[in-house]
Amino acid sequence: MLTRKRMAVGVVALTALVMLSSCFSLPGIGGFNPLGDLQSSLSDRASAEVSSASGLTGMTRKMMFNVLYSQIFFIGGFGADYYNLEETQGTVWRILSTDDDGSFSSVEAERAFLKTMPTGEQWWFLAWRADDEVWEFEALMDKDLMARKIRYFNADVKRVEESKFDDPAKAKAGSETAPPPEASTSGLDPKDLPKYVKAKETVKVGGGTYQAERIEWTFYDSEEKTTYKYTWWVDPKAPGGLVKYEWTRSGSKESVKGELVSLKKGYKTKFASF
Fold it and tell me: Rg of the chain over CA atoms, in angstroms?
């Protein structure tokens, strides 16, 4: 189980990771030798095939999915199962993180409920976009919303591939083959949410205007002597319930803010998952 602090800070850390990886995505050099680029491309393709065949690509995709899972599926630390999406319905979010020095970064997160299978398992679409970096997955979730496998497009070898997670009941916690743990949803039961409602407000976001309840919850970290505050704006009539959120911590200028920017309907599988 991710800690409450790690789950919220993860958005900032992951954003930095994505931005940093973009900085090192340098274009190929070989203007004086056009064949050099071709040979390099063929060599890279061979390496990509080896990585794919050996399972290395699948392992790295699962590791990335494990990082992104809580940030997208439990957007803003809010329980994904508090308010369900309809089948083929999805939401797109804009997330803005601010560091202590005032610098900020923005990402787009998207999740959609694709289909319920006869077994009761569900296919979901999860996407994370920042600058030129795009990560897209279709994930098969079991009845407890634990990921059993993911499908994705491997651009290096130009095909859709699949990676499976270990059975959650048998998986070793923390291993790369174990499904990602559920994100902490502040330890709140849906029945307890009314206790933390501070007001009812009209909230205008890109995805529409909602009559939302402002829910505030704080967590004190005794080791760091820091208080983390979560604020959620929730309208039960909105797809997924959550329409806006904010995370802050005491003694810091760091913050993470997110808002629903659009709703979509009619999602279909991109990776021939069903």
Answer: 20
Question: Facing residues of 256 across strands?
Answer: 97, 247
Residue that is written with structure tokens 């900032």 in the block: 12
Distance (Å, rounded) from C-alpha 61 to C-alpha 64? 5
**Contact between residue 151 and residue 161 where contact means Cβ atoms under 8 Å apart:** yes
Q: Hey, what amino acid is at 240?
A: G
pLDDT one-digit tens code per residue, 119-137: 999 999 999 998 888 999 9
Highest mean pLDDT among 11-25, 123-137, 178-192: 123-137
What does each C-alpha distance from 90 to 61, 110, 263 come to in angstroms? 22, 7, 6
Residue with tokens 């003694």: 251
Q: Which amino acid is at 47?
A: S
- Tokens describing residue 21: 């990886």
- For range 149-159, the mean pLDDT: 95
State the chain's mean pLDDT as an integer: 81
CA-CA distance, 180 to 46, in Å (whole number)?
30
Amino acid identity of residue 162, one-letter, is E
What are the pLDDT digits (tens) for 257-271?
A: 999 999 999 999 999
Q: Give pLDDT tens digits for 44-85.
A: 767 888 888 888 888 889 989 988 888 898 888 887 778 889
Cα–Cα distance, 217 to 76 (Å, whole number): 12
- Count other Cβ atoms within 10 Å, centred on residue 80: 23
Nearest-angstrom CA–CA distance, 179 and 69: 10
Angstrom distance (rounded) from CA 3 to CA 112:
25
- Flag whether pLDDT at 189 surpasses 90: no
